[in-house]
Amino acid sequence: MFALTPDSVFDGQTLHRNTAVVIAGERIHGLMPVAELDAGIKQHPLPGALLCAGFIDLQLNGCGGVMFNHDISAATLAHMHATNLQSGTTSFLPTLITSPDQDMHRAVQVVSEYRARHPYQVPGLHLEGPYTNMARRGIHPAAQIRPLNDTMLEFLCGHANDIAMLTLAPEVNRDSAITRISKAGIRVSMGHTAASYEEAMAGFAAGIGFATHLYNAMTPTANGRLPGAVGAVYDSLTVGAGIIADGHHVHYANIRLAHRLLGTRLCLVTDATAAAGAPEGFDQFNFCGATVYVRNGQCVDENGTLGGSALTMAEGVRNLVKHAGLSLEQALAMASCNPACALGLEQHIGLLQAGRLANLVALDQNLQVIATMVNGRFSV
Ligand SMILES: [Zn+2]
């Protein structure tokens, strides 16, 4: 057992000062005033540091020069995890975009085996597509966008433990299929969709509980008569959403507005690609057959369509505070507590409270990462 004594601690809801975090093995034993620590306990001082639960990224295609779609393997996941630690992320959903059935099978198998060894590092797979709307496909390969068939419906439901999230378009899927997938335990998320307000609301009623990269690749509010898919998310009292805070995907005023309406149901996601945390000079990569160029921090194909981001979670937190005007607590919660709740894993990760895994990030005054801890051990 040992105690971390930082400058301040964010427990998931509140910022504390003069507070120590006591760690026993892999878990957090509890928080207590520094003055009340046992004289005998080993102390690890972190002067000037702010401690927060490790960040959780619900949508990560790749980072550090690798893409999960390109090499669906445990080695890719291990490399993504190692890269993530540099920016405070201790859990992520590897995200496979629109792919053939065989790649989806392989991704499920790879994630299943990886999770068995590192259960909270990768809480599950995020399948983004292929059951989406061609009209809002973004960079997803058109040839692979297809309807959900009964064989794949059975496959998905049979592997619900390993599939944390499935992004689909409600208007091109049967309500009964959405309900089955949701009841099997997969979080169904609306995305790459041309749904009207009414179609989105019908999807929510069928079991959709989340929205993928809010605003991007979904029907906006066109005018007073057409609330669109974005308006449906705002009108729902239960649907959460991921949002990309890189300054390229969404205007910061829209992020602020989304936060005002969704509160703790809004999660920071990176939707990052190989470009995030990549070595200096890394300027292009292959994303499902499309060449994506990294230009001034943006990832775009030859037509200028955004193809993921180069964002890290720590950078996203800084952007939320500096540019979107959120409070430090709100920004940190969007990267830790909120995504843990979206996954139903708040008893294990995402909060810096007794009983949770000792997965945490230490930040300096400028919110730069000083250190990252996984399972009670400093990794960075
Ligand atoms: Zn997408």
TrEMBL record:
It comes from the Bacteria. It holds the Pfam family Amidohydro_1. GO terms for molecular function: N-acetylglucosamine-6-phosphate deacetylase activity. Keywords: Carbohydrate metabolism, Hydrolase, Metal-binding. InterPro entries: Amidohydro-rel, GlcNAc_6-P_deAcase, Metal-dep_hydrolase_composite, Metal_Hydrolase. Its EC number is 3.5.1.25. Residues 51-377 form the Amidohydrolase-related domain. Belongs to the metallo-dependent hydrolases superfamily. NagA family. This is N-acetylglucosamine-6-phosphate deacetylase.
